[in-house]
Amino acid sequence: MIIGVPKEIKNNENRVSMTPSGVHRLVSVGHKVIIEESAGLGSGIADAEYEAAGAAIEKDVSEVFSQSDIIVKVKEPLESEYHYFKEGQILYTYLHLAPNPALTNALLEKKVTGIAYETVETEDGSLPLLLPMSEIAGRMSVQVAANYLQSFYGGEGVLLSGVPGVAPAEVVIVGGGSVGTNAAKIAVGMRAHVTVFDVSKKRLSYLDDIFGGKVTTVLSSEYEIAQAVKKADVLIGCVLVPGKKAPKVVTAEMVKTMKKGTVIVDVAIDQGGSIETIDKATTHDNPIYEKYGVIHYSVANMPGSMARTSTYALTGSTIGYLFQIAQKGAKAALLDDKALLRGLNTFDGHLTNKAVAESLNIEYTDAENVLK
Predict the structure, then answer these.
(1) What is the per-residue pLDDT across 259-272, written as a single tens digit (0 to 9) for each?
(2) 264, 255 in Cβ contact below 8 A?
(3) End-to-end CA distance of the chain
(4) Res 346: pLDDT
(5) Of 153, 194, 151, residue with least CA distance to 172
(6) Under a CB-based contact definition with an 8 Å cutoff, are residues 169 and 149 in contact?
(7) What confidence tens digit (pLDDT) does each residue in 19-75 have?
(8) Nearest residue to 56 via CA among 36, 72, 42
(9) Which residue among 12, 18, 318, 367 is the one 20 to 30 A from 291 at the CA level?
(10) What is the CATH classification number for the domain harbouring 337?
(11) Residue 98 sits in which domain range?
C-alpha cells in the first residue's frame, strides 16, 4: 500500500503522524511511504531522516493525498483539506466527529474509510490511541493553569504550592480518567490541594489508593461540583464519553460564583467541552479569553505545543494498528481486531459509530454489517 503523511496545518500543530522508525517498519515489508516536505520539522525530524528510513519526500500536498491509499494524520482535516479526499481512501487520525458535522458530511460524501484514534477501544474500555495524548494534555493542563494564575495575565496571583504560612491553591478536577489522573499527578507534585470528581466509585477508590490520600475524591453530583467550584483557584474539565459530545457538567451559573482571576482549562474541548462557558476552541496563538472575571483556556490541540514528546508518544501507539491495516487491507484488519473496528467512524458513505450518530442525529449503520 501507499501511505501518505501530510504536514499538519492546524494552528501551531507541530506534531507529525509518523517517525522514521514507523517509515522503516512499513517500507521494510514492501509498502511505500510519502512524507510531505518539512512535515516533521516541528517535531525535530528532518526530511533527510525520513529519506534514510526509506520514505519519499513530496513537496505538493495534493500529490500526497492523490497518490496514497492511506492518509495518516494527527489532527482532524480542516475544511481546506476536504477536497483532497478520494473515494475509498483510508483516513487514520483523530477525527472528533461528534462536534463537527461538516467534516462528517465530507467523509460520508467522499466515501472515505475514517478510522478515529479516539474511538479505538479495547475490551476493557481503555482507549490506547487516546491515552498518550491524554497523559500529556492532563499534565500540561496544570502547567498552563499555573502560568495563567499570574497577575501578569490577569490571574489572581496565587502560587499553586503556596508557601509556609500561606495555603496552597485549590485545584478542582472534574473527571478522574486518564486526563484527570495525570492532571492530579502534576498538581499534587506542585503541592496544590487537589479535589477530583468522577461518576465512578470504583475509579475514585483507585485514585484514593494510588495517591495515598493526597487528593480528595468526591462522587460527582451537581451540588458537590457547585460547592467545589466556588472555592477553586483552578478548574480542569476532563470529562469524556468516547465518540460523543462531552456533557456540560459545569454550568455558567457555577462559573459565575468563581473568584476573579481564577483559571479554567477545558481539556474536553476536542469533543465540544465540558464547561458551559467554554463555547469555542481557542488556539495556541490566542489561547485564553475572560468571562465573568474567570480566565478560560480551551486550546483544542494542547499536546501540539509539546510536539517532540507528543509525536513519539502517539506514533508509538498508532503504528501497530497502521501496520495491520497496511498488511491486511482495511476490511480484514477491522474485522480481525475488535478494538480497531470500534475506531471505524465512516465507511462507504455510512456512519458506523453509534455515539457520533446520536450526537449528530445521523443514521447509524453497524460496522460489521457494512464490512461483510
Answers:
(1) 999 999 999 898 88
(2) yes
(3) 22
(4) 98
(5) 194
(6) yes
(7) 999 999 999 999 999 999 999 999 999 999 999 999 999 999 999 999 999 999 999
(8) 36
(9) 12
(10) 3.40.50.720
(11) 2-120+307-371
95-112 residues labelled b (16+ CB within 10 A) or e (exposed): bbbbbbeebbbbbbebbb
Q: Does 138 share its domain with 189?
A: yes
Asked if 2 and 31 count as a contact pair (C-beta separation under 8 A), the reply is yes
Residue tagged active-site, from 270, 296, 337, 350: 270
**Distance, CA of 347 to CA of 368 (rounded, Å):** 11
The Cα–Cα gap between 331 and 107 comes to 17
β-partners of residue 163 are 166
- 270 catalytically annotated: yes
Residues 31 and 102 in one domain: yes
User: By CB neighbour count within 10 A (0-12 exposed, 13-18 middle, 19+ buried), where does 76 fall?
Assistant: buried
DSSP letter string, 213-262: TSEEEEE--HHHHHHHHHH-SEEEE----TTSPPP--B-HHHHHTSPTT-
Report the residue count for the chain: 372
Distance CA 48, CA 60 (A): 17
Alpha-carbon gap, residue 280 to 272, rounded angstroms:
8
pLDDT tens sequence across 159-197 = 999 999 999 999 999 999 999 999 999 999 999 999 999
**Cα–Cα distance, 117 to 164 (Å, whole number):** 45
What's the gap between Cα 349 and its chain centre? 25
47 catalytic residue (yes or no): no
**How buried is 254 (Cβ within 10 angstroms: 0-12 exposed, 13-18 middle, 19+ buried)?**
buried
What letter would DSSP give residue 62?
A: H
Give the active site residue among 31, 69, 96, 233. 96
Backbone torsions φ then ψ of 265, nearest 5 degrees: -120, 120
- The amino acid present at 278, given as its one-letter code, is I
Q: Are residues 255 and 109 in the same domain?
A: no
Could you tell me which of 288, 311, 355, 364 has the C-alpha nearest to residue 132?
311
Of the three residues 283, 305, 327, the one that is the final residue of a domain is: 305
CA distance 91 to 130: 16
Where are the alpha helices (H) located in the chain, listed in sequence order? 20-27, 47-53, 61-67, 101-109, 131-148, 178-189, 201-211, 222-231, 252-256, 307-328, 330-336, 338-342, 354-360, 367-371
Q: Is 338 helix (H, G, I), strand (E, B) or coil?
A: helix
Give mean pLDDT, residues 324-330: 97
